[in-house]
Design a protein that fits this description.
Chain lengths: 260, 510
């Protein structure tokens, strides 16, 4: 390190190396990624978000929802379970055999052995593959998130803090549009003790006109609006809710195989 | 004597010479020379540090608002500008882009001019660049609050703001590099390595981040990969380069003995830039597995430079001379370097798969980044600024006691923010992994969060004290300028009546 040029060269090589590794190589490997198909099916995955859902991602970005919510689930492993698809000609013997066997949370080898025993007894077993891990056990997802899930997102909102629950699958978990909207308007009325701030500015609170608005939110019994008033979602709220409902990263893929 | 020993001898000689600079008589030629160097830096440094102090206060206020929202979700909830998801990134960016980077650039300008003993030429350009930078931050923070965030962590500033910041940085870096090239003392001090590398680091990563994510976005999850690369290179490598480069100048200066040792510093520098730049891809991320694997391996190797910095700190401060400077700036820089060790260890630990399974997605991450940004970098910068700004301005600090109070407030504030949040993060992670119901997890972390809000309040007070001192010194300087201006205007009038004796003369005669 005897000259300024030497320092520059060292920094250039060090940063250039990591640039090639973590910028150029991923662009080369994944930058041209295309849709894939759902495992054992011809359905295309993922489909671009349509209309309101696509606009909703921008509402999600503008309001910084990713400051508290992740959109990625982890899985720590896979486990097999064996189910009886058809008891066969001797159901009593097969049922007796099954009651003496452990059928869930098996490795692939053990599952194959158990399936072999059931087949020998005359039944027709089926081996099912499932993901394991705390996120899966919590019911947040059926499989881990993979690169394909984010193909059409711009910006990709992975998030890095779970002050609130993960949203990778919220469209599967809470598919009710009214639930999503009322939750955005008054989170603590829907989930007791929620730390989520209410997003009232995405809604309009106004007097009920001659005909009540068909879009007005339907609140649970113990939540009281001022009498004669109704809450109608603005366009942003509808877009955001549509986006949340479009978050459904649950189909089995080649890179995340599970039994449907 | 081999080449390395020669280098070390040169370094020691240069250091002794510089220490001697401080000890010569006030009227000596060296002192006069130093004062011309300082005078050349006055305007750009005041613009950089003054703006930085204001952003620090604003960032602390925004962080406080964000923190209160966790205790009372209804707080300011009807105001879209101040919703949590906008205030929190705005607070983070105000601290990083508003305070840390301009403060770092100012300190780099000063260190280059002093180490190279070369006055800054054409100071109007860095002055303009400093204003341009602060304008860029203003546009950026405003953009985030109005909902124009790009949505990428630590890169939220909208496009227009990023362009301003990029060109402002280029101008400042260019002037620092020209000053470096024109240095009269041709020796290279370890601080030079770190700071030259840092000057070059930022434009590359910032342009990559903005071009690949905002201008011509890449597809899908590659955005996140480039985002992680950018954040690692900015928050870990760039801050470490500037902060350590500064500490490696001030620690020997304050302790009165050379940096221990040249080779350890060389090892820390080389391995930091070589391996540090590869960290940051989280375990289990939805990306090809080789990426996090490489990152974990790089994090393991990055332990070496971090331990080397620990060794340098311990050996440089051990057995320091009795005449060594203690208190004031020294305390800030020492605390900053210790924080660097802790925050780096926290950061590298999260690359370990077993540990990251618990701490990922918890408050442990924000605790680490706050320790890095505030505990390490901002504290080191406070120390440097408290040391250099009075010399640059030729004015003592107006409130030296507030500086001491600021040290204690910042220290306790950082501790109260980081320690509970890190522990809370681990608790949160364990509960999340063991299937505790989600509202109960939130409730359990809230206890720790309460303490951390107190820490933020202390940090807000500390930043107010810092801003007060900077504003004070600016005010005193402007007043003295005004006085000398008045004197210059009056001078011809006074010389017109030389016979009248001044009141002072009369007193002396009496």
């Amino acid at each position: 390190m005897k000259s300024g040029f030497g320092i520059f060269l060292a920094a250039f090589i060090a940063l250039g190396g990591s640039w090639c590794g973590f910028v150029l190589a991923p662009v080369h490997q994944l930058g041209g990624a295309q849709e894939t198909t759902v495992l054992n099916s011809t359905d295309i995955y993922p489909l671009p978000r349509s209309g309101e859902g696509g606009l909703g991602l921008q509402v999600y970005r503008a309001n910084g929802c990713a400051a508290c919510h992740t959109e990625q689930v982890r899985q720590t492993g896979v486990a097999c379970s064996v189910v009886l698809a058809d008891p066969g000609k001797n159901p009593v013997a097969v049922t007796n055999l099954i009651s003496s066997l452990v059928l869930t949370n098996l490795t692939r080898e053990d599952a194959a052995k158990v399936a072999g025993k059931i087949t020998a007894a005359g039944g027709k077993p089926e081996i099912r593959l499932g993901a394991t891990g705390p996120d899966i056990a919590r019911g947040w997802a059926t499989r881990q998130s993979v690169a394909e899930d984010y193909l059409y997102d711009l910006p990709v909102q992975l998030g890095n803090l779970r002050a609130g629950p993960d949203l990778a699958n919220v469209g599967v978990r809470d598919p009710d549009l009214n639930w999503q909207l009322t939750h955005l308007y008054a989170p603590s009325a829907i989930t007791k003790g929620s730390a989520m701030p209410p997003f009232r500015y995405l809604f309009e609170l106004h007097k009920i006109g001659q005909v009540p608005s068909p879009d007005a939110l339907r609140f649970p019994g113990d939540f009281a609006l001022p009498p004669g008033y109704e809450v109608v979602p603005k366009a942003e709220a509808r877009q955001l809710a549509a986006y949340l409902l479009s978050l459904r990263a649950s189909v089995p893929l080649y890179s995340a195989p599970i039994s449907p | 004597m081999n080449v390395n020993e020669q280098n070390e001898a040169l370094g020691r000689a240069a250091l002794l010479r510089r220490q001697a600079d401080q000890q010569v008589s006030p009227t000596g030629p060296v002192e006069q020379f130093t004062s011309t160097v300082d005078a050349s830096l006055r305007l750009p440094l005041l613009a950089l540090f003054g703006g930085a102090a204001l952003w620090l206060v604003l960032g602390s206020v925004l962080a406080m608002i964000a923190s209160i929202k966790f205790h009372a979700p209804d707080f300011l909830a009807s105001c879209p500008v101040l919703t949590y998801g906008r205030v929190q990134p705005a607070a983070d960016d105000a601290l990083l882009y508003g305070f840390c980077i301009p403060a770092g650039l100012g300190v780099i300008l000063w260190l280059f001019a002093h180490l190279g003993r070369a006055p800054l030429r054409g100071a109007v350009v860095p002055l303009f660049a400093a204003y341009l930078w602060h304008l860029g931050v203003l546009v950026g923070i405003g953009g985030i609050l109005l909902g124009y965030s790009t949505g990428f962590p630590w890169l939220e500033f909208p496009r227009g703001s990023s362009v301003l910041l990029f060109f402002a940085y280029l101008l400042l870096a260019l002037w620092a590099a020209m000053n470096f090239a024109a240095r009269r003392d041709r020796g290279l001090y370890p601080s030079h390595w770190f700071l030259v590398a840092a000057l070059f680091w930022f434009p590359w990563i910032y342009s990559t981040g903005n071009l690949f994510l905002v201008a011509w976005p890449v597809r899908g999850v590659v955005q996140s990969i480039i985002g992680w690369w950018f954040v690692d290179n900015l928050l870990f490598v760039w801050l470490a380069l500037v902060g350590l480069g500064t500490a490696f100048y001030f620690l020997p200066k304050f302790s009165g003995r050379p940096l221990q040792t040249y080779y350890l510093a060389l090892c820390a520098f080389g391995m930091l830039i070589l391996f540090g730049a590869w960290c940051g891809i989280p375990q289990g991320a939805p990306v090809p597995t080789w990426l996090p694997t490489v990152s974990t391996f790089a994090a393991l190797l990055t332990l070496v430079p971090v331990l080397a910095v620990g060794l340098i700190l311990a050996r440089t401060l051990r057995g320091r001379e009795k005449s060594a400077v203690t208190g004031g700036p020294f305390c800030f820089v020492r605390f900053g370097t210790v924080s660097f060790l802790l925050s780096s260890l926290m950061f590298l630990a999260t690359a370990c798969p077993h540990f990251s399974r618990i701490t990922e997605f918890t408050w442990f991450g924000p605790a680490q980044s706050q320790l890095q940004l505030y505990g390490f970098f901002a504290m080191t910068m406070f120390g440097a600024i408290y040391f250099l700004l009075p010399r640059v301005m030729g004015i003592e600090w107006p409130f030296p006691r507030l500086a001491r109070l600021q040290f204690w407030l910042s220290l306790i504030g950082v501790a109260l923010f980081v320690i509970p949040l890190a522990i809370g993060g681990v608790v949160q992670g364990i509960k999340l992994n063991n299937g505790v119901a989600f509202p109960d997890v939130t409730k359990a972390t809230l206890v720790f969060f309460r303490v951390s809000t107190t820490g933020l309040l202390l940090l807000l007070l500390a930043s107010l004290l810092f801003a007060l001192n900077i504003l004070g010194i600016t005010f005193v300087w402007k007043m003295s300028l005004l006085k000398s201006l008045l004197a210059a205007v009056k001078a011809p009038l006074e010389t017109g009546s030389p016979s009248a004796p001044s009141p002072v003369d009369q007193e002396v005669k009496a």
